Amino acid sequence: MNLVIQSVAPLSADHHKTLVALARGSHAAVIDEHAIRIADANLAQRADVEAYCYAHRLDYAFVETGRQLSDFGLVAMDMDSTLITIECIDEIANFCGLKAEVAAITEAAMRGEIKDFNESLIRRVALLKGLDASALERVYEERLRLSPGAERMLAGAKQAGLKTLLVSGGFTFFTAKLKTRLGLDFTRANTLEIIDGKLTGNVMGEIVNAEVKARTLRETCATLGIEPSRAIAMGDGSNDLKMMAEAGLSVAFRAKPVVREAASVSFNFVGLDGLLRLV
């Protein structure tokens, strides 16, 4: 296995030496000033490597030797708190004075404490009833920000020939804008019902929950003529787990503990462009 170590700050030579020793690897190759690749790393040393990396705010990943980004055909991403830094529904709720109440439900759902995602979404959207739909545009313009490294990651994936899928338990208002802005190939999300310029508190059509996210990944792979094992899935919450389990490589991005434990790789500190250094 290769062991890829990444840092937000430049990696010092002291880190290089210590990590080669901890991983019982043969040598470290510099990827760039923020990352190294240690060859012949011993997977049995994961606990020691993890403890060191956590203490020094480093991200690590054991990766099969010889894997390349072009081995994959699709990168599938969650939206809220993955491709973007915010939870859109929480910010929408802020415009009707209910952010704390809605955010508490969102957080519990993402940690996996609320098992029925559909119920949690219906509860949250119902609280938005009567809100002027212009709040959606304000959230997009004033509060929505891309996660660090998002555009670089997407550019690198596209250059390697991968297609892009944004699949979200959030809302089509935002995924549609991001599709145009970022040149994404496929998107899927929930549709808020709007009548006379006001949110009705209802979601239209099938809710994009964990099962639908996984199915969307499979269907998109089928459209592209590839197996799900050639997909990369990135997410942060428990409703991403089934989608991530379908993929050949799963990335937990600043994720809840249940997601970090299940994913192939976790990025707790570096940006989404950390994907480009892995393979």
UniProtKB/TrEMBL annotation:
The keyword Magnesium applies. Residues 3-49 form the DUF4072 domain. Its EC number is 3.1.3.3. GO terms for molecular function: L-phosphoserine phosphatase activity; magnesium ion binding. The active site is at D78, D80. It comes from the Bacteria. Pathway: Amino-acid biosynthesis; L-serine biosynthesis; L-serine from 3-phospho-D-glycerate: step 3/3. Its cofactor is Mg(2+). It catalyses: O-phospho-D-serine + H2O = D-serine + phosphate; O-phospho-L-serine + H2O = L-serine + phosphate. GO terms for biological process: L-serine biosynthetic process. Gene3D superfamilies: HAD superfamily/HAD-like. Keywords: Amino-acid biosynthesis, Hydrolase, Magnesium, Metal-binding, Serine biosynthesis. One of its GO terms (cellular component) is cytoplasm. It holds the Pfam family Hydrolase. Belongs to the HAD-like hydrolase superfamily. SerB family. NCBIfam families: HAD-SF-IB, serB. This is Phosphoserine phosphatase. It comes from Paraburkholderia tuberum. The lineage of its organism: Bacteria, Pseudomonadati, Pseudomonadota, Betaproteobacteria, Burkholderiales.
